[in-house]
Write a structure and sequence with these properties.
alpha/beta, binds nicotinamide-adenine-dinucleotide, Dihydrodipicolinate Reductase, domain 2, 353 residues, 14 strands, Rossmann fold, 8-stranded mixed beta sheet, 6-stranded parallel beta sheet
Length: 353
């Protein structure tokens, strides 16, 4: 049985991680930390054995944890993940992974050097369509990658202005605990707006699928206030020569599925991954074509999978099979490349808009 600790007992922890931990037969939540006493009480009340702590340091000093889930605001991700890795735990970090690429790379190196599993919570990567696009590209089925274009719309614009009620009305998701406004609207906590919160999803999906490295990065964004962006256009060149154009926005048409697609254009074929619908369509120059639909009972956004995969990887590593842990940490290495791209959004922010 693995002992799990939680950093940040907020909306997403209650909605995604705690149910996944509780439903895992070989893991149990034993410790949680949150500076908000009500939220901490809500997480610790779930089970009599869960202890609440006022800080990450006190939790790590008092509890022997195998797995730590970091779901606090983005500005605290790097320090919490580092401390948990140094305490010997496998770590899941919410997106955005970290605010700075140097921190993300340092965490990946730390995990790899200690043979610990480090993973970033990116549910879009756990669908059958995501696995299919990874394997199509890795096997060179589309030929050499020439160009990629992506669009990623979300309903998140109200969050950047601190209007949590309007956001929850738009997404119509049940919630026991709502996000705190500052988690998304205070740049000292969020590190920025849409780029941090949402563009991080599509850029991470691009690197997950291609395993490519960015060579040149250019960004233009619409800012509501300093560092508080609501839409981004990114232009990348990947090592190997492929060019990438991405548009991402916090506004979309209500009551319709958000447009969230990435299209891969190769010398021998084309594939389109629809992240919102969890489908993949691909066609080769010779005429072969296929559609990958979601697996039986598969959610298009399997938000419990990241923590389940981490728990399974730590269990396998304890049993002497370290492959899954290594693969998760390699995935965190790809997510670190996304941090490098997102960081670029905030580097040359225009002064007047
Ligand atoms: N992967 C996804 O789809 C997804 C979805 C929603 C949120 N998230 C991410 O999850 C994280 C939390 O977002 P949320 O929507 O749950 O927000 P939230 O405001 O509900 O939760 C954040 C919690 O962290 C606590 N906190 C603040 N400072 C802390 C610290 N230093 N140590 C520990 N806890 C601290 C807050 O009191 C709050 O309870 C963010 O990084 C967000 O980007 C990811």
């Amino acid at each position: 049985m693995l002992n799990v600790g939680l950093v940040g007992a907020g909306w997403w922890a209650h909605h995604a991680h705690l149910p996944a931990i509780r439903s895992h037969p070989e893991a149990r939540l034993v410790a949680a930390t949150d500076p908000d006493p009500e939220r901490l009480a809500s997480a610790t009340a779930l089970d009599p054995g869960v202890r609440g702590f006022p800080s990450v340091a006190e939790m790590l000093a008092a509890a022997d944890l195998d797995v730590v889930v970091v779901a606090s605001p983005a500005a605290f991700h790097a320090d919490a993940a580092r401390a948990a890795l140094l305490a010997g735990a496998g770590v899941l970090v919410e997106k955005p992974f970290t605010l700075h690429a140097a921190e993300a790379r340092e965490l990946v190196e730390l995990a790899a050097s200690r043979r610990l599993a480090l993973s970033v919570s990116l549910p879009y990567q756990y669908t059958r369509a995501a696995r299919a696009v990874r394997s199509l590209l890795a096997q060179g089925e589309l030929g050499s990658l020439v160009a990629v274009h992506g669009v990623f719309e979300s309903y998140t614009a109200p969050l950047y202005a601190g209007d949590v009620d309007e956001y929850l009305r738009r997404v119509d998701r049940p919630h026991a605990v709502a996000p705190l406004p500052g988690t998304y609207a205070d740049v000292a906590l969020s590190g920025g707006g849409h780029g941090q919160s949402q563009t991080s999803h599509i850029v991470s999906a691009l690197f997950d699928a291609t395993d490519a490295h960015p060579e040149r990065i250019a960004a233009e964004s619409a800012f509501l206030a300093p560092r508080m962006d609501i839409a981004n256009t990114l232009s990348l060149r990947l090592k190997g020569g492929a060019v990438v154009g991405i548009f991402s926005s916090g506004e979309t048409l209500p009551r319709q599925p958000a447009q969230q697609t990435i299209t891969y254009l190769g010398t021998r074929g084309v594939a389109r991954h629809d992240l919102a619908l969890a489908t993949l369509d691909w066609a080769l120059a010779g005429g072969d074509a296929e559609r990958v639909e979601p697996g039986e009972g598969e959610s298009a956004y399997p938000n419990g999978e990241p923590v389940r995969a981490l728990i399974d990887a730590v269990l396998a590593a304890r049993a002497g099979r370290g492959d899954a842990a290594r693969e998760l940490t390699e995935g965190a290495g790809r997510a670190a490349r996304a941090v490098e791209v997102i960081e670029r959004i905030y580097r040359d922010e225009p002064v007047d808009v």
